[in-house]
Amino acid sequence: MQAQESVNLYTQQLKKLEKVGKILALSNEELEVLSKPERVIQVKIQIKSNNSIKTFLGWRSQHNSALGPYKGGVRFHPNVTQDEVIALSMIMTWKNSLLQLPYGGGKGGIAIDPKLLSKEELELVSRKYIDGLYKYLGEDFDIPAPDVNTDSQIMAWFVDEYVKLTGNINFSSFTGKTEILGGLKIREFSTGLGLVSIAKLASEKFLGNLSGKTVIIQGFGNLGSFAAKFFEENGSKVIGVSDSKGGVFNEKGLRYEELEKAKKATGSVINYSDANKISNEELIEKECDILVPAALENVITKANASKIKAKLIVEGANGPITAEADEILKQRQIIVIPDILANSGGVVGSYVEWANNKSGNLINEEEAKDLILKRMERAFYEIYNKYNSLGNEDFRTASMVVAVERVIKGMKERGLI
Ligand code: GLU
User: Fold this and answer.
1) CATH 3.40.50.10860 in the chain, residues?
2) Fewer Cβ in 10 A, N or C end of the chain?
């Protein structure tokens, strides 16, 4: 699952924003304001382990706070760069605005391969990241959460380090925590659940009933695996999945439970027994009703967009389709449900957790699930109406128009522009 390094995610995001700027008749100055992050912090992470010193770089980008404190995940991945983190924080600004959450956009990351670290080293790295950043975090300032290769254990270390440094026993400064520290059980699978609920609505509008539809999922991390589970529960047929080691394909369908078993026992879905092996690149071009790119960014580019055979693409990852590929897919009448809607179940889950922690943990799991699904459904229909009223624009553009318009309105009301 190689993200194509030659494509810069930030440049892609700027192109997508420019297009929306034209529709909203934004001035060049306004576009300039939205293009740049309000603050980017770089931290050097130095750890001593086994008599050697290891050094890594990490970042936190705080893109826009017009509508509230910065909110977004932290990823640990060798390909993380400052530009990538800025682009991802911009995506969070649109996502949070689209879902009408009281947040701006932020994102963090460390350029590191966590698979090469011991658990002790991973804890040290996590704590050092917070040491460098804690002055710029807080429940009413910037609230990190999990993202690629980070989880509730890492959030627990973040919280502990933050408490030590600030002296405030405040757990709402981070979301996606373990249950005992105020996390919601549902947060773990809320991104996958939300994605499938949106895929269902989109399928009903554009393809017909979700039940019986064939699905391919690229990426079998937190999002991809739970998405496979919920697609199966909805009667869809998951015919292909992959992870960083490769993929498996069987047009008769793959079984979620067996995929999970293969992943747990051997570290990869490629060891699933009843299927043919397939590369990530081939998998994405296979015929299916619904394709879910749920791995990394820039996997559908102008190089392969004309070969995609799916009828509907639901973006699990952030930024998996480039701006040029968007145009090709639009011409080919392939509908794309964008990241800022499709994977927003994670941050809506985070919002419920944060609000719950701030109010003394008053919400139960059922209420949380209800709120997440309703909030996403409301956003879906808001975009769907905008999509119809714009006439000749794609679904991503319609959703960004809704999101950017709200940010602009907030900035105007506050006198920022
Ligand atoms: N990392 C997730 C995202 O990209 C969740 C962010 C959050 O919960 O703050 O939306």
Assistant:
1) 36-172
2) C
Between CA 388 and CA 292 the distance in angstroms is 23
| Whole-number pLDDT of residue 136 | 98
Indicate if 107 belongs to the active site.
yes
Q: Is 319 in the pocket of ligand 1 (CB under 6 A)?
A: no
Give the class (CATH, top level) of 190-342.
Answer: alpha beta
Residues of the chain with pLDDT under 50: 1-5
pLDDT of residue 1: 47
Six token digits for residue 19: 């297009």
Express each pLDDT in 53-90 by its tens digit: 999 999 999 999 999 999 999 999 999 999 999 999 99
Taking the CA of residue 88 as reference, the ligand 1 atom at the shortest distance is 4
Q: Give 32 Cα–ligand 1 centroid separation in angstroms.
A: 25
Alpha-carbon gap, residue 172 to 353, rounded angstroms = 8
Joined together, the tokens standing for residue 120 give 């002790």
Please report the pLDDT score of residue 2 as a whole number: 47
Q: Is the dihedral of CA 310, 302, 306, 23 positive or negative?
A: positive
The pLDDT of residue 26 = 98
For the chain, where do the domains classified as CATH 3.40.50.720 start and end? 190-342
pLDDT reported for residue 33: 97
Spatial strand order of the sheet with 335-337 comes to 276-278, 246-249, 237-243, 214-218, 290-293, 312-314, 335-337
The conformation of residue 51, written as its DSSP 8-state character, comes to T
Query: How high is the pLDDT of residue 93?
Result: 98
Does 36-172 carry CATH code 3.40.50.10860?
yes
